[in-house]
Amino acid sequence: MIQIKNVMKQYDNGVIAIKDLSLSVNPGEFVYVIGSSGAGKSTFIKMLYHELTPTSGTISVGKYDFATMANKDIPLFRRELGIVFQDFKLLPRLTVFENVAYAMEVIEKDEAEIKPRVLHVLKLVGLEQKLRRFPNELSGGEQQRVAIARAIVNAPDVVIADEPTGNLDPDTSEDIMDILERVNADGTTVIMATHNRELVNSRPHRLLEIAGGRLVRDEEGGAYGNEV
Amino acid sequence: MKSNVIKRHIKDSLKSLRRNGWMSVAAVSAVTVTLLLVGIFMALLLNINHISTQVENDVRVRVYIDKNTTKAQQASLKKELKALPSVDKITYRSSNQELDSIVGTYGSQWKMFSGDQNPLNNVFLVDTTSPKATVNVAKKAAKLKYVAEASYGGNTAKKLFQTVDAIQRGGLAFTILLLFVAVFLISNTIRITILSRKDEIRVMRLVGATNAYIRWPFLLEGAWTGLLGALLPILAVDIAYGLVYRSANLSTAANGFALYASMPFLLWLDLAIALIGVIIGALGAVVSMRRFLRI
After folding, report:
1. Backbone phi and psi for residue B218, each to the nearest 5 degrees, phi listed first
2. For a FRET experiment, which of A181, B47, B73, B224 has its CA 20 to 30 Å from that of A3?
3. d(CA B6, CA A224)
4. Strand duo A158-162 + A81-84: pairing
């Protein structure tokens, strides 16, 4: 699903955020990415959805090889992904329903197809009662659930979640994890960057640890507490 | 593009205009003020141009015919005048008609010169195809037989031509300047509304919207802003022009000059104001968002 080979990322100011990183992720895997602030976790995640490009090395996600991907194909590539952010990044002027529908509208789906699908995913994340609310009328956990609904509405192959529980209390974080695991159980690959020790330890999955820009640990069912 | 996508873009742009609330009101107001200025100055400049052209066209050559010229000789003179280059129309006025117009303008005491006392000549009024040809036509006419004198207003006319030229050139420069100001003001206002939404554009990109898809609703929203901003100026200019036309034409008509009649002048002016609003609004939006669309 995801192939990363000898990737290095150096910013314009000379800072090297990722050094010689190689790994691969199989379809249907659930992968945690952990590491302290400034370890290169965010850079790594951003490279996965082509917000940043590697300085050297190759990344391919699905059928898209970043080295040969034309600029006009970037939007098409992103449609194969679902991206969830720590700060939700909902469109503030759109309602819950419209925020989720937007991801289907941009790929020019018909109205007849959009409505039932959006209602379905909103039900999946438990927000079918709040269709007409605007993001600022929702709690943090609810906003994140809208963001997840938006991420999965087009049935992507991969969901990339960048600290999805970073702004949420423990109970709400558990809810969000439930949803992400359910998405994963349906066959979607999930890559999740997190700081949340409890979640990682109580719900073991493959764990990638990045420190100083290098991949220092790649362990199935790994847990916090035995960091390298 | 599919028709339902176009419909969706139009719907989205209107929705966004509504939900942006005060930001939209601010943008529309800025456009309103700018277009009001543009409308007023356009009406003013176009009419100044119009009247100066009329003044210029009023200049014609007066060919005074020698006294004691027979009808046949006058007819041959008329033919010769007609043959001169740039001559358009020739009107004959007898000495009596000339005196009548003096009496009409300066009063009945001039009647004492009527009949055999009339000192005036018979005159050919020569209209030229272009105002500036009058100088040459007058010079050539003066050399013809049976011509006592040919005048075109001399230095007065020359000065008039220069003044009209200056007014028209100045008006054009001012119009261009005004359009630049309009472009600057309107696109800047729209730019601010878009700057406040750069996160929104980023999210659109991240869910896989193509640049074209993101651009359309913004472009349409800019166009709506321009169109809404044009409504009040159109209304104001129409009403004000109607009032000015009525009172100004009473005084100017006496001199033989007229402003543009309300119809179709206002129709074109309204269309111009609306078009300027829509085009600058749409372009302003597209240009402002360009830098947020780089991947």
Report:
1. -70, -45
2. A181
3. 51
4. parallel
Query: Which residue of B9, B207, B292 to mutate against A (max A Cβ within 10 Å)?
Result: B207
Please tell me whether residues B52 and B66 are part of one structural domain: no
| Superfamily classification of domain A2-39+58-219 | P-loop containing nucleotide triphosphate hydrolases (3.40.50.300)
Question: Which value, in Å, is the radius of gyration of the alpha carbons in chain B?
Answer: 30
- Listed residues B98, B128, B152: the one ending a domain: B152
Q: Which of B109, B134, B152 is the last residue of a domain?
A: B152
Q: How many domains does chain B have?
A: 2
Q: Residue B229 is part of which domain span?
A: 3-56+160-292
- Does A19 contact chain B (CB < 8 Å)? no
Q: Write out chain B residues lying below 8 Å of A84, CB-based.
A: none
Contact residues for B252 (Cβ-Cβ < 8 A; gap 6+):
B51, B258, B259
Average of per-residue pLDDT across B222-250: 90
| Tens-place pLDDT, residues B119-143 | 888 999 998 888 778 888 888 888 8
Choose the closest CB to A106 out of B20, B202, B208. Answer: B208
Q: Kindly list the residues from chain A whose CB atom is less than 8 angstroms away from the CB atom of residue B204.
A: 91, 102, 106
User: With a threshold of 0.90, does the pTM exceed it?
Assistant: no
